[in-house]
Amino acid sequence: MAGEQKAKAKMDQATGKAKGAAGRATDDEGLAAEGRSQQAKGDLRQAVEKIKDAFRR
Predict the structure, then answer these.
(1) Do 19 and 12 form a contact (C-beta atoms < 8 A)?
(2) Fewer Cβ neighbours under 10 Å: the N or C end of the chain?
(3) CA 53 to CA 38: how far, in whole Å?
(4) Contact 16/36 with Cβ under 8 angstroms?
(5) How does pLDDT run across 6-56, given as a tens digit for each residue?
């Protein structure tokens, strides 16, 4: 389960980064904001998984 969540976090980060870059390239502030939001979601999910790993030890 933890590996699956970590993979989702990485996917959110990568997708968010791509959306943000596409939004900046096309001057679409809505898409850029959506990308930043999704990347932050991935960052948060990754942080939660790191905390869970720390308590498993």
Answers:
(1) no
(2) C
(3) 23
(4) yes
(5) 899 999 999 999 999 999 999 999 999 999 999 999 999 999 999 998 998
Number of alpha helices (DSSP H) and beta strands (DSSP E) in the chain: 2, 0
Q: Which two tokens stand for residue 3?
A: 């590996």
Tell which residue, 21, 53, 26, has the closest CA to residue 38.
21
pTM: 0.83
* CA distance to 51, 53, 55, per residue, from 38 (Å): 20, 23, 26
pLDDT at 29: 96
